[in-house]
Design goal:
By secondary structure, the protein is mostly helical.
């Protein structure tokens, strides 16, 4: 689903909306890793991390859509094409991060219910352990990939905007 927004408060929306994934990606990735490896964190802050991942997924969609709206107004330089290509990978990775964090919390809930006796004597416990390991791995991979992609896409976008622009501040002495 693409959401195209051209302007916000008279400015190109992309310049504002890209800050949602820039800020939330490392925070959500760190929260996702803490959720994967700390039961204390999972129980106390896991829901907040999940909400952060959902806001990140929507914010990434807004940033991508506003970039597509802006693409028509900018020159198609190699730097712009590089930025667009790197940004295309963000959508599925952010959804994977959201899904893996949701999976962690759902599996934790099933484990707690199992500890209360609802799963005792069944074959579900080994299945939950295997599913848990796969979900932790998915969280680690998606958190690292999301962070790396946002850094690369952000850097290439900044280069596309500022590489050939005049200096706005004096160089340091």
């Amino acid at each position: 689903m693409k959401i195209e927004i051209g302007r916000l408060w008279g400015l190109p929306a992309h310049a504002l909306l890209v800050h949602i994934p820039i800020v939330l990606t490392p925070i959500t990735a760190a929260g996702g890793l803490a959720t994967a490896f700390s039961g204390w964190w999972r129980r106390r802050v896991g829901a907040i991390v999940l909400v952060s991942a959902a806001v990140l997924a929507v914010g990434t969609q807004l940033a991508i859509g506003s970039g597509e709206a802006l693409r028509e107004a900018v020159r198609k330089t190699p730097l712009v094409r590089t930025h667009v290509g790197q940004s295309d990978l963000l959508e599925p990775v952010m959804l994977a991060l959201l899904g893996s964090i949701l999976g962690l919390l759902l599996i934790e809930r099933a484990r707690v219910r199992g500890a209360e006796g609802r799963l005792s004597g069944t074959r579900r416990a080994p299945t939950l352990r295997l599913l848990w390991c796969a979900t932790v791995l998915a969280t680690v991979v998606s958190a690292a990939t999301a962070t790396g992609l946002v850094i690369r896409a952000g850097h290439s976008g900044a280069r596309a905007v500022w590489k050939d622009s005049p200096q706005l501040v004096r160089p340091l002495p």
